[in-house]
Amino acid sequence: MSESLERLVRHAHETRVIVIGGGVSGLVAARECAKVGLEVTVLEAADVLGGVVRSAEVGGMTLDVGAESFATRGGVVRDLLGELGLADDVVSPNPEGAWVAGVPGVGAAPLPKGGVLGIPDNPFAPDVRRVIGWSGAWRAYVDRVRPPLTIGHAHSLGKLVRSRLGARVLDRLVAPVTSGVYSARPDDIDVDLAAPGLNAALTRTGSLTGAVAELRARRPQTRPADAPASDVPVAGSAKAPAPGGAVQGIVGGMSRLVDALAAGLRDADVEVRTGVRAERLDRTDDGWAVSTSVDDEPLTARAVIVALPEGPARQLLAPVVPGLEAGDPIAPVVEVVTLVLDAPVLDGAPRGTGVLTVPGSHVAKALTHSTAKWDWVRDAAAPGVHVVRVSFGAQGEEPATAALDDDAAAHLALSEAAALLGVELPASVLRAAHRVRYVQSQPAATIGRAAVTAAARDAVRAVSGLGATGAWLSGTGLAQVIPDARQEADRVRSAALWRS
User: Fold this and answer.
1) DSSP of 154-213, one letter per residue?
2) How far does CA 10 lie from the centroid of its chain?
3) 291: part of which helix (H) or strand (E)?
4) How many whole angstroms separate alpha carbon 414 and alpha carbon 342?
5) DSSP string spanning 348-387?
6) Which one of 63, 72, 362, 436 is separated from 494 by 20 to 30 angstroms, measured CA to CA?
7) How far out from the chain centre does Cα 448 lie?
8) What distance in Å separates the CA atoms of residue 48 and residue 475, rounded to the nearest whole number?
9) Could you tell me the pTM of the whole model?
């Protein structure tokens, strides 16, 4: 071994990196640092690891109560699962698809299968016309003959759809998708981020419906278009899996990914500490000092990677990162109530694998019928027992469950489930319930968001020995969170190793 290599190996074992945050981004970053022999400590304020990827025992079953799936694009998540020995347990959801509820004059109907972000490629298709009616279909047809005066220059998804296809397509097809998947209004969604290539296709084809048809022709469809990928976009969802894109899950729940990451870290002698909150960062002559909620003396390290949600991350970083504001941007708050029901009436999956709602029509924004969507959940349940997850809250909207106690929240969720699934579900069918609250990252696809995160990244990277990762920077969804955590860890560890 050369002298320089020996020095590097010795330096690695003497170099400590502290990763603040035990969600998937923090665990992946810690794993990357440990691979090269760095001494790594992970600090997580909660009592459990995983962030929005978590499970709980509900009605005698271990179920996902956070993110329930991951986007397959790029193969990033699948590759990591393979490294962790979980590849054989990866499963695909039922391809039947979801419904939309709260449609004026219709009630509920299957989500049309030929669309991107809810935008149809053919407004006269029977499944589209069922939702928007003949008048909505003819209004949308105007898109085909309208002069292309502003083609290729649209930024707001809502404004684009409203002007080209009309209010019915926007309100009944697009808004349920953006609310259910992104927790955001269509007017706030950036077309180029949410549907890359749509503007360019619009320029080529001369119409929005033609652009959708072109994009769909180029994209493999492995599940029904616009089926909700997850009622909690992952860190993780980041943006969340794009409607129409493929998603998969893990038998036994997504928290098995967290368990496998944590086990691997412990095997690599990484110190993983839960119930420890990082309260302050201070510069030292040789790196950083991290003051915590439990240690009498600050912990010292050559480098620190902050893998927290946006509000806590900014609060911790702002005092030591010039130009980074400490303010906590208004982020969507979502509550998910998981119900275990003794309800044979749901055996036939009356409304597919889940339901999205027309904004303003129901107090719930989405429902996932887990026993219809995932075979492993169905197999874990007794005959006639069903699992549904009801989501409340969206951008600028406090969850309807926010002021309720757990029992009242469960009964509200049960009432909404009955309305969304179109069946009677009396209180007697409720076997068990679990409620969890999440503060989601701002959707990466919102207008102006890319500039905000780019500025934050530049500010952090200008400070030696400091890194930041997480859904607020990468966009939600494991397919974006994992590669971002790897890249940031590589940047920080390389700087720490080669520092003289």
Assistant:
1) --BHHHHHHHHH-HHHIIIIIHHHIIIIISS-GGGBBHHHHSTTHHHHHHHHSSHHHHHH
2) 40
3) strand 287-292
4) 12
5) T-TTTTEEEE-TTS-SEEEEEEHHHH-HHHHHHSPTTEEE
6) 72
7) 19
8) 23
9) 0.89
Would you tell me how many other CB atoms lie within 10 Å of the CB of residue 383?
Answer: 8
User: What is the DSSP pairing of strand 385-392 with strand 99-103?
Assistant: unpaired
Q: What is the pLDDT of residues 452-471, one digit of tens each?
A: 999 999 999 999 999 999 99
Triad 153, 156, 158: Cα angle to 5°: 125
Whether the CB-CB separation of 418 and 99 falls below 8 Å is answered with no
> 10 Å Cβ neighbour count for 391?
29
Check residue 50 and report its DSSP letter. Answer: B
Inter-residue long-range contacts of 164-167, CB under 8 Å, 24+ positions, other chains counted: 164/207, 164/208, 165/119, 165/123, 165/139, 165/140, 165/208, 165/209, 166/136, 166/139, 166/140, 166/142, 167/139
Angle value at C-alpha 352, between 348 and 357, nearest 5 degrees = 130
> 244, 216 in Cβ contact below 8 A?
yes
**Cα 255 from Cα 55, distance rounded (Å):** 6
Confidence (pLDDT) at 446: 86
Tokens standing for residue 357: 């709602």
CA pair distance 468, 480, nearest whole angstrom: 14
Tell me what pLDDT residue 240 has: 38
Domains of the chain: 3-51+256-328+446-498 (3.50.50.60), 55-95+246-253+332-439 (3.90.660.20), 112-218 (1.10.3110.10)
Task: Read off the pLDDT of residues 179-197 as tens digits, 9 standing for 90 and up.
Answer: 887 778 999 999 988 888 8
Distance of CA 11 to the CA centre of its chain: 38
